[in-house]
Write a structure and sequence with these properties.
By secondary structure, the chain is of the alpha+beta class. It folds into 2 domains: about 110 residues, no CATH class; about 190 residues, Immunoglobulin-like (Sandwich), CATH 2.60.40. Helix content is about 25%, strand content about 40%. Strand 7 and strand 8 form a beta hairpin. Helix 3 crosses helix 4. The radius of gyration is 21 Å and the shape is globular. The N and C termini lie far apart (about 50 Å).
Length: about 325
């Protein structure tokens, strides 16, 4: 078992650790409690060392852990957060120190090992309508169309959108289609691919204001008219402003046409909305133009199926008690 990952794996794991520690929630709260004066978007390394040292002293696993002090971890923390050197032991130290979830831990190790099926993205704003021209230019002529799309969206106990599981069927509209673009606004934290996907392109490009693009590499090159079923997961890093409308809605913007669209939004049992609406919007930045109040089922979820969607922004929005 190797102790040090490939350089690209170390950088990817370090980026994911940084985003987990910056994402609003218990990890960020843990180190922020150790800081007298916070700086926006900056992780205080000594505060992180304090959290990890406290954890090691409370549950020592090696000789010396019971007496370890934060200053002794300063260089290790700096190396991990910068991506200069991320060893197996140092990454495990962060995992244990902050008690990352099983899913986050598994994703970290896949990144560390150099997986090409996951990419880390990050940011704070939503896609503006003015970005559409830049997006269209970057994409160039369309080489595929989406036949069907399914979004399963989870809202966590803290009221934030946690993740989305996407199932998509695409059809090649040109010869030799071996990849499709993946667009994300800057609230996206990671994208991880599975069924029907060989991996993700190595580069992540900013193609418009607050819009990033990478490419999903298909498991099979498609010829004209051939289809493929794809599966991927998207996790999010919203700033945590519960008064912001963007954090109380999930919209799907369709620039072209989708023959079949299915969406399910599911809420944690500890945080249920007081009201929930199915709605359509006047573009990405526009106001609601039509809405219908809906209720949750016994699994705390709501569902909608559309036989056809074309140049539309639609989804759910809600309010809390």
């Amino acid at each position: 078992m190797r102790d040090v990952a490939p350089p690209a794996g170390q950088r990817a794991a370090a980026e994911y650790v940084r985003q987990l520690l910056l994402k609003p929630g218990r990890y960020r709260q843990a180190w922020e409690q150790q800081v007298a004066r916070l700086r926006d978007g900056v992780i205080n390394q000594m505060a992180v060392a304090e959290v990890i040292a406290t954890r090691l002293r409370s549950a020592p696993g090696r000789v010396g852990d019971a007496q370890i002090m934060p200053y002794q971890l300063r260089d290790i923390v700096a190396d991990v957060l910068s991506g200069r050197h991320v060893s197996r032991d140092s990454l495990q130290m962060f995992i244990d120190g902050f008690a990352f979830t099983n899913d986050e831990t598994a994703r970290l190790w896949r990144l560390w090992n150099g997986a090409t099926t996951i990419r880390v993205l990050a940011g704070t704003k939503a896609v503006p309508a003015r970005a559409e021209h830049g997006v269209s230019q970057a994409l160039g002529p369309r080489r595929h169309q989406t036949v069907s799309l399914h979004d399963h969206v989870w809202i966590g106990a803290d009221g934030r959108i946690e993740r989305t599981h996407v199932m998509q069927v695409v059809e090649a509209t040109a010869e030799e289609v071996d990849r499709i673009p993946f667009l994300a606004d800057t609230n996206v934290l990671t994208v991880e691919v599975g069924l029907g996907c060989r991996g993700l392109a190595a580069d992540v490009r900013q193609i418009a204001d607050d819009v990033f693009m990478t490419e999903i590499i298909l498991a099979k090159t498609l010829q004209l008219g051939e289809t493929a079923a794809l599966e991927y997961w998207v996790t999010f890093r919203y700033p945590g402003d519960m008064t912001c409308a963007a954090e109380r809605e999930f919209r799907r913007a369709v620039m072209g046409q989708i023959t079949s669209y299915d969406i399910r939004v599911e809420f944690h049992s500890d945080r249920l909305p007081s009201k929930l609406w199915w709605a359509s919007w006047e573009g990405v930045d526009g106001a609601v133009i039509d809405e219908q109040e809906v209720s949750l089922d016994s699994q705390h979820s709501a569902h909608r199926y559309l036989r056809s969607v074309e140049r539309t922004v639609a989804g759910f929005h809600w309010i809390w008690s």
